[in-house]
TrEMBL record:
InterPro entries: AAA+_ATPase, ABC_transporter-like_ATP-bd, ABC_transporter-like_CS, Oligopep_ABC_C, P-loop_NTPase. This is Peptide/nickel transport system ATP-binding protein. GO terms for biological process: peptide transport. Gene3D superfamilies: P-loop containing nucleotide triphosphate hydrolases (3.40.50.300). It holds the Pfam family oligo_HPY. Keywords: ATP-binding, Nucleotide-binding, Transport.
Length: 302
Protein backbone atom coordinates (compact mmCIF):
# COMPACT_ATOMS: atom_id res chain seq x y z
CA UNK A 1 0.00 0.00 0.00
CA UNK A 2 1.52 3.37 -0.97
CA UNK A 3 0.61 5.17 2.25
CA UNK A 4 1.87 2.51 4.62
CA UNK A 5 4.77 3.73 6.76
CA UNK A 6 5.08 0.86 9.14
CA UNK A 7 4.08 -2.78 9.11
CA UNK A 8 4.07 -4.98 12.19
CA UNK A 9 3.87 -8.64 11.17
CA UNK A 10 3.23 -11.63 13.45
CA UNK A 11 5.09 -9.88 16.23
CA UNK A 12 5.90 -11.98 19.27
CA UNK A 13 7.73 -11.09 22.47
CA UNK A 14 8.27 -13.61 25.25
CA UNK A 15 9.88 -12.80 28.58
CA UNK A 16 11.47 -15.43 30.80
CA UNK A 17 10.23 -15.39 34.35
CA UNK A 18 13.06 -15.63 36.88
CA UNK A 19 16.71 -16.24 36.08
CA UNK A 20 16.75 -20.03 36.11
CA UNK A 21 13.17 -20.75 35.20
CA UNK A 22 12.28 -21.91 31.71
CA UNK A 23 8.81 -20.47 32.13
CA UNK A 24 7.91 -17.71 29.73
CA UNK A 25 5.17 -15.16 29.45
CA UNK A 26 3.90 -14.16 26.05
CA UNK A 27 3.80 -10.39 26.51
CA UNK A 28 2.96 -9.85 22.84
CA UNK A 29 1.40 -12.62 20.81
CA UNK A 30 1.29 -12.79 17.02
CA UNK A 31 0.36 -9.15 16.43
CA UNK A 32 -0.14 -7.73 12.94
CA UNK A 33 -1.11 -4.18 12.00
CA UNK A 34 -0.10 -1.26 9.81
CA UNK A 35 0.52 2.42 10.41
CA UNK A 36 -0.32 4.74 7.55
CA UNK A 37 0.87 8.24 6.79
CA UNK A 38 -1.00 10.84 8.87
CA UNK A 39 -2.93 8.17 10.77
CA UNK A 40 -3.62 8.28 14.49
CA UNK A 41 -3.96 4.80 15.94
CA UNK A 42 -4.89 4.18 19.51
CA UNK A 43 -3.64 1.08 21.23
CA UNK A 44 -5.92 0.33 24.14
CA UNK A 45 -5.97 -2.42 26.75
CA UNK A 46 -5.75 -3.28 30.42
CA UNK A 47 -2.54 -2.96 32.42
CA UNK A 48 -0.06 -5.68 31.43
CA UNK A 49 -1.75 -6.40 28.09
CA UNK A 50 1.48 -5.68 26.16
CA UNK A 51 0.99 -2.11 24.88
CA UNK A 52 4.29 -0.66 26.06
CA UNK A 53 6.11 -3.78 24.87
CA UNK A 54 4.80 -3.14 21.34
CA UNK A 55 5.95 0.49 21.59
CA UNK A 56 9.41 -0.62 22.76
CA UNK A 57 9.69 -3.19 19.98
CA UNK A 58 8.89 -0.52 17.38
CA UNK A 59 11.42 1.82 19.01
CA UNK A 60 13.99 -0.99 19.03
CA UNK A 61 14.39 -0.85 22.79
CA UNK A 62 13.53 -4.56 22.74
CA UNK A 63 14.14 -7.29 20.16
CA UNK A 64 11.22 -9.41 19.00
CA UNK A 65 11.21 -13.13 19.85
CA UNK A 66 9.79 -13.62 16.38
CA UNK A 67 7.97 -11.68 13.70
CA UNK A 68 9.05 -8.56 11.89
CA UNK A 69 8.61 -4.81 11.88
CA UNK A 70 9.02 -2.92 8.61
CA UNK A 71 9.51 0.80 8.19
CA UNK A 72 8.96 1.77 4.56
CA UNK A 73 9.24 -1.89 3.57
CA UNK A 74 12.61 -2.37 5.26
CA UNK A 75 12.99 -4.67 8.24
CA UNK A 76 14.00 -2.33 11.08
CA UNK A 77 16.17 -4.90 12.83
CA UNK A 78 17.98 -6.05 9.70
CA UNK A 79 18.26 -3.11 7.37
CA UNK A 80 18.49 -0.11 9.67
CA UNK A 81 21.79 -1.08 11.23
CA UNK A 82 22.37 2.60 12.00
CA UNK A 83 19.83 3.24 14.74
CA UNK A 84 20.34 6.98 14.55
CA UNK A 85 19.05 6.99 11.00
CA UNK A 86 15.95 5.15 12.15
CA UNK A 87 15.40 7.45 15.14
CA UNK A 88 15.45 10.43 12.82
CA UNK A 89 12.10 9.22 11.53
CA UNK A 90 10.60 7.12 14.34
CA UNK A 91 10.51 8.64 17.83
CA UNK A 92 8.90 7.90 21.17
CA UNK A 93 7.37 9.99 23.90
CA UNK A 94 6.98 8.24 27.22
CA UNK A 95 4.77 8.69 30.20
CA UNK A 96 7.32 10.53 32.30
CA UNK A 97 8.56 13.57 30.38
CA UNK A 98 11.02 14.47 33.16
CA UNK A 99 13.06 11.38 32.37
CA UNK A 100 13.36 12.38 28.72
CA UNK A 101 15.49 15.49 29.30
CA UNK A 102 19.01 15.88 30.63
CA UNK A 103 18.41 17.85 33.85
CA UNK A 104 21.81 19.58 33.59
CA UNK A 105 21.11 21.26 30.26
CA UNK A 106 18.92 24.24 29.55
CA UNK A 107 16.33 23.73 26.82
CA UNK A 108 18.33 25.68 24.20
CA UNK A 109 21.27 23.31 24.72
CA UNK A 110 18.96 20.31 24.44
CA UNK A 111 17.67 21.55 21.09
CA UNK A 112 21.25 22.25 19.95
CA UNK A 113 22.08 18.62 20.66
CA UNK A 114 19.19 17.46 18.48
CA UNK A 115 20.75 19.27 15.53
CA UNK A 116 24.19 17.97 16.39
CA UNK A 117 23.09 14.36 16.82
CA UNK A 118 20.32 13.94 14.29
CA UNK A 119 19.97 16.74 11.79
CA UNK A 120 23.40 18.26 11.31
CA UNK A 121 24.15 21.96 11.52
CA UNK A 122 21.73 24.10 9.60
CA UNK A 123 21.82 27.78 8.75
CA UNK A 124 18.24 28.28 9.84
CA UNK A 125 18.56 26.23 13.01
CA UNK A 126 17.30 28.99 15.32
CA UNK A 127 14.39 29.72 13.06
CA UNK A 128 13.41 26.04 12.98
CA UNK A 129 13.56 25.82 16.77
CA UNK A 130 11.44 28.94 17.19
CA UNK A 131 8.88 27.76 14.61
CA UNK A 132 8.46 24.38 16.24
CA UNK A 133 8.07 25.91 19.72
CA UNK A 134 5.51 28.37 18.45
CA UNK A 135 3.69 25.53 16.72
CA UNK A 136 3.22 23.77 20.08
CA UNK A 137 2.01 27.02 21.62
CA UNK A 138 5.19 27.93 23.54
CA UNK A 139 7.08 31.17 23.77
CA UNK A 140 10.70 30.51 22.65
CA UNK A 141 12.05 33.50 24.64
CA UNK A 142 10.67 32.05 27.85
CA UNK A 143 11.26 28.35 27.28
CA UNK A 144 14.75 28.21 25.81
CA UNK A 145 16.42 29.69 28.90
CA UNK A 146 14.82 27.25 31.33
CA UNK A 147 16.08 24.03 32.85
CA UNK A 148 13.73 21.02 32.55
CA UNK A 149 12.94 21.08 36.30
CA UNK A 150 11.62 24.62 35.94
CA UNK A 151 8.89 23.43 33.56
CA UNK A 152 5.64 21.58 34.17
CA UNK A 153 4.86 18.06 32.90
CA UNK A 154 2.58 19.53 30.24
CA UNK A 155 5.25 21.96 29.05
CA UNK A 156 7.80 19.15 28.82
CA UNK A 157 5.41 16.99 26.81
CA UNK A 158 4.86 19.89 24.41
CA UNK A 159 8.64 20.16 24.10
CA UNK A 160 8.81 16.50 23.16
CA UNK A 161 6.25 17.13 20.43
CA UNK A 162 8.29 20.16 19.30
CA UNK A 163 11.35 17.91 19.12
CA UNK A 164 9.45 15.48 16.89
CA UNK A 165 8.43 18.40 14.69
CA UNK A 166 11.97 19.72 14.31
CA UNK A 167 13.15 16.28 13.35
CA UNK A 168 10.21 15.95 10.97
CA UNK A 169 9.49 12.43 12.21
CA UNK A 170 7.21 10.06 10.31
CA UNK A 171 5.99 7.99 13.25
CA UNK A 172 5.58 9.03 16.86
CA UNK A 173 5.01 6.41 19.54
CA UNK A 174 3.19 8.20 22.35
CA UNK A 175 2.94 5.97 25.43
CA UNK A 176 0.44 7.40 27.93
CA UNK A 177 1.48 10.78 26.58
CA UNK A 178 -1.08 12.91 28.30
CA UNK A 179 -1.81 10.87 31.40
CA UNK A 180 -0.13 13.36 33.68
CA UNK A 181 -1.85 16.43 32.28
CA UNK A 182 -4.99 18.08 33.58
CA UNK A 183 -8.15 17.76 31.51
CA UNK A 184 -7.94 21.08 29.65
CA UNK A 185 -4.25 20.73 28.78
CA UNK A 186 -4.95 17.19 27.58
CA UNK A 187 -7.39 18.39 24.98
CA UNK A 188 -4.91 21.08 23.87
CA UNK A 189 -2.13 18.54 23.42
CA UNK A 190 -4.46 16.10 21.63
CA UNK A 191 -5.76 18.79 19.30
CA UNK A 192 -2.19 19.81 18.60
CA UNK A 193 -1.19 16.26 17.74
CA UNK A 194 -4.20 15.82 15.46
CA UNK A 195 -3.40 19.10 13.70
CA UNK A 196 0.23 18.08 13.13
CA UNK A 197 -0.82 14.70 11.76
CA UNK A 198 -3.22 16.27 9.29
CA UNK A 199 -0.82 19.01 8.22
CA UNK A 200 2.49 17.16 8.16
CA UNK A 201 1.40 13.58 7.56
CA UNK A 202 2.98 12.40 10.81
CA UNK A 203 1.50 9.16 12.17
CA UNK A 204 0.97 8.55 15.88
CA UNK A 205 0.61 5.32 17.80
CA UNK A 206 -1.27 6.59 20.82
CA UNK A 207 -1.00 4.13 23.71
CA UNK A 208 -3.67 4.73 26.33
CA UNK A 209 -5.99 3.30 28.97
CA UNK A 210 -8.51 5.99 28.23
CA UNK A 211 -11.20 4.94 25.78
CA UNK A 212 -12.80 8.37 25.58
CA UNK A 213 -9.53 9.99 24.55
CA UNK A 214 -8.94 7.19 22.07
CA UNK A 215 -12.34 7.83 20.54
CA UNK A 216 -11.71 11.55 20.42
CA UNK A 217 -8.40 11.40 18.63
CA UNK A 218 -7.93 8.23 16.63
CA UNK A 219 -8.75 7.09 13.10
CA UNK A 220 -8.05 3.47 13.95
CA UNK A 221 -8.39 1.55 17.21
CA UNK A 222 -6.49 -1.55 18.34
CA UNK A 223 -7.73 -3.39 21.43
CA UNK A 224 -5.31 -5.65 23.33
CA UNK A 225 -6.11 -8.33 25.86
CA UNK A 226 -3.42 -10.52 27.47
CA UNK A 227 -0.87 -9.97 24.73
CA UNK A 228 -3.36 -10.58 21.91
CA UNK A 229 -4.79 -8.07 19.51
CA UNK A 230 -8.49 -8.89 19.93
CA UNK A 231 -10.19 -6.21 17.86
CA UNK A 232 -8.90 -3.79 15.24
CA UNK A 233 -10.62 -1.35 12.96
CA UNK A 234 -11.87 2.07 12.07
CA UNK A 235 -12.54 3.76 15.42
CA UNK A 236 -16.24 4.44 14.81
CA UNK A 237 -16.84 0.79 13.82
CA UNK A 238 -15.06 -0.65 16.86
CA UNK A 239 -16.86 1.71 19.26
CA UNK A 240 -20.31 1.42 17.72
CA UNK A 241 -20.25 -2.26 16.90
CA UNK A 242 -17.90 -4.03 19.32
CA UNK A 243 -17.81 -7.80 18.80
CA UNK A 244 -15.12 -9.21 21.10
CA UNK A 245 -16.37 -9.63 24.71
CA UNK A 246 -13.34 -7.76 26.07
CA UNK A 247 -14.02 -4.73 23.87
CA UNK A 248 -17.69 -4.84 24.87
CA UNK A 249 -16.73 -4.89 28.53
CA UNK A 250 -14.29 -2.00 28.09
CA UNK A 251 -16.90 0.14 26.40
CA UNK A 252 -19.47 -0.64 29.07
CA UNK A 253 -17.05 0.44 31.75
CA UNK A 254 -16.75 4.03 30.51
CA UNK A 255 -18.34 6.19 33.20
CA UNK A 256 -21.31 7.97 31.77
CA UNK A 257 -21.95 11.49 33.05
CA UNK A 258 -25.57 11.75 34.09
CA UNK A 259 -25.96 8.03 34.76
CA UNK A 260 -25.22 6.83 38.25
CA UNK A 261 -22.70 4.04 38.63
CA UNK A 262 -24.50 0.71 38.81
CA UNK A 263 -22.97 -0.99 41.84
CA UNK A 264 -24.27 -4.37 40.73
CA UNK A 265 -22.39 -4.19 37.48
CA UNK A 266 -18.95 -5.57 38.26
CA UNK A 267 -16.03 -6.04 35.93
CA UNK A 268 -13.90 -8.59 37.69
CA UNK A 269 -10.86 -9.78 35.74
CA UNK A 270 -11.82 -13.46 36.38
CA UNK A 271 -15.29 -12.88 34.94
CA UNK A 272 -13.89 -11.18 31.88
CA UNK A 273 -11.30 -13.89 31.32
CA UNK A 274 -14.03 -16.51 31.64
CA UNK A 275 -16.23 -14.69 29.14
CA UNK A 276 -13.33 -14.35 26.72
CA UNK A 277 -12.54 -18.08 27.01
CA UNK A 278 -16.18 -19.00 26.43
CA UNK A 279 -16.23 -16.76 23.38
CA UNK A 280 -13.15 -18.44 21.90
CA UNK A 281 -14.61 -21.87 22.63
CA UNK A 282 -17.99 -21.08 21.12
CA UNK A 283 -16.46 -19.61 17.96
CA UNK A 284 -13.59 -22.01 17.43
CA UNK A 285 -14.83 -22.95 13.97
CA UNK A 286 -13.82 -19.40 13.00
CA UNK A 287 -10.04 -19.39 12.66
CA UNK A 288 -8.13 -16.52 14.23
CA UNK A 289 -8.51 -12.91 13.23
CA UNK A 290 -11.45 -12.40 10.89
CA UNK A 291 -12.86 -9.44 9.02
CA UNK A 292 -16.42 -8.88 10.26
CA UNK A 293 -17.04 -5.85 8.07
CA UNK A 294 -14.80 -3.65 5.92
CA UNK A 295 -11.99 -2.18 8.11
CA UNK A 296 -13.06 -4.13 11.20
CA UNK A 297 -11.40 -7.38 12.37
CA UNK A 298 -11.98 -9.53 15.43
CA UNK A 299 -10.04 -12.36 17.07
CA UNK A 300 -12.44 -15.32 17.26
CA UNK A 301 -10.02 -18.02 18.38
CA UNK A 302 -6.46 -18.34 19.66
N1 LIG B 1 11.52 -6.59 30.79
C1 LIG B 1 10.53 -7.41 31.16
N2 LIG B 1 10.79 -8.61 31.73
C2 LIG B 1 9.81 -9.46 32.08
N3 LIG B 1 8.50 -9.21 31.89
C3 LIG B 1 8.17 -8.05 31.34
C4 LIG B 1 9.15 -7.08 30.94
N4 LIG B 1 8.52 -6.00 30.39
C5 LIG B 1 7.21 -6.29 30.44
N5 LIG B 1 6.99 -7.51 31.01
C6 LIG B 1 5.68 -8.17 31.19
O1 LIG B 1 5.02 -8.17 29.93
C7 LIG B 1 3.63 -7.91 30.07
C8 LIG B 1 3.24 -6.72 29.24
O2 LIG B 1 3.82 -5.56 29.80
P1 LIG B 1 3.60 -4.09 29.20
O3 LIG B 1 4.46 -3.16 29.95
O4 LIG B 1 3.78 -4.16 27.72
O5 LIG B 1 2.06 -3.83 29.53
P2 LIG B 1 1.17 -2.53 29.28
O6 LIG B 1 0.00 -2.95 28.48
O7 LIG B 1 2.01 -1.44 28.76
O8 LIG B 1 0.68 -2.19 30.77
P3 LIG B 1 0.40 -0.74 31.45
O9 LIG B 1 -0.94 -0.31 30.94
O10 LIG B 1 0.34 -1.07 32.92
O11 LIG B 1 1.50 0.19 31.11
C9 LIG B 1 3.40 -7.75 31.58
O12 LIG B 1 2.95 -8.98 32.09
C10 LIG B 1 4.75 -7.39 32.11
O13 LIG B 1 4.89 -7.82 33.43
MG1 LIG C 1 2.53 0.48 29.51
Amino acid sequence: MPNTLMKVENLQKDFSIGILSKKKIHAVNNITFEIKKGEIISLIGESGSGKTTIGKLILRLLKPSSGNIYYKDKDINLEYKDKRKYYKKVQGIFQDPFASFNPLFKIDRIFDMIFKNFIGESKNKNEKIRDSLECVGMNPEFILKKYPHQLSGGQLQRLLIARALIMDVDVLIADELISMLDASTRIDVLNLLAKICKEKGMAVLFITHDLSLGYYISDTTLIMHKGNLVEKGETSLVYNNPIHPYTKMLLKSIPDIGNKWNKNEKFLPEDINKKVEEFYKSSKDKKGFIEVEKNHNVLFSL
